[in-house]
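Support request, priority: normal
Reporter: lab tech (M.K.)
Component: structure prediction queue

Hi team, I submitted a job for MHD2 domain-containing protein from Triticum turgidum subsp. durum yesterday, and the status page still shows it as pending. I've pasted the exact input below so you can check whether something in the sequence is tripping the parser. The sequence length should be 314 residues. Please let me know if I need to resubmit or if it's stuck on your end.
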Amino acid sequence: MLQYIRDQLDTIEEGIKQSWVDVQSAVGLLDYLSYMASEGATSKSSPSDESIDELFTIFDDVRRTAVNITDTILNFIGTRAVFWDMRDSLLFSLYRTSVESARMEIFIPTIEQVLDQVCDLIVDVLRDRVVLRVFQACMEGFIWVLLDGGPSRAFLETDVNLMKDDLAILKDLFIAEGQGLPSDVIEKEAKLAQQILDLYVLKADIIIDLLMKASEHMSHHLEPAAARRRNVHDIHTLLRVLCHKKDNGASTFLKIQYHLPRSSDYDDVPVKDAPSKVPIFSDMLNRGASFNWSETGQQSFRIMKKKLQEASWQ
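Reply from support: The job had stalled in the queue. We restarted it manually and it finished. Here are the results:
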């Protein structure tokens, strides 16, 4: 987060510096054009078309820089509001230990307070844009809780309905009974979160099958997280769902294939007894030690295994 803040501030600073250079150039060119215009009154000389075009180009550059700086500031405000100002009161607390004891409704007053503070600082013409960015950041934070929230988040299938209700509560807050953001915009921004919640409803063996299929199409070299857009069907998302799914089948699969410690707090199932205690694995383990995956799939999984083992959980 600190690096993100530094990057955003650097972007704003460079944009302001360039705009100042452009404005100084424009002032000098205006002085020149004024001089040429005054001379033209007595000597028939006039400013060249090239000089006038250059002046318009300078002001277009200043305008584009101003627009880009505005976008950067709005993105910064939304991201900081959720991932910095509300990191303790929302991100680190939502669903921690259990879903039922840390529902979204507990944190709605905090989100409302932050929205009020942000809107007080922004001119009315930018209100909807900054509120949208805050909602987008809330969705990013919600997805972070679902997929990267650490071992304190382990979800049962019965938790999913509660989380879907919480997502609806959050959407309603930003729609504000028609006074806030348009409902179609809200639905579009919340689509990925809804799809991830739908994954949690699926049985572990179905998610594992999806994971195996996704591995067949995965590049041998994983792209950095910042260089790709998260997709509900990609291997990264499916693996994280398994890691947070409070299910013996999911946990046993992760222990067998990735040698990962279980992230949930249910009773441990010895790996050697997995086929007899977890029915879905009886068929899978009979396919062979590699689950009969292709070389492409195995190599992709080996890369992901290394990444997961290097990752530090919260």
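Residues 2-43 form the longest helix (42 residues). The CA atoms of residues 94 and 102 lie 5 Å apart. Let us know if anything else looks off. Ticket resolved.
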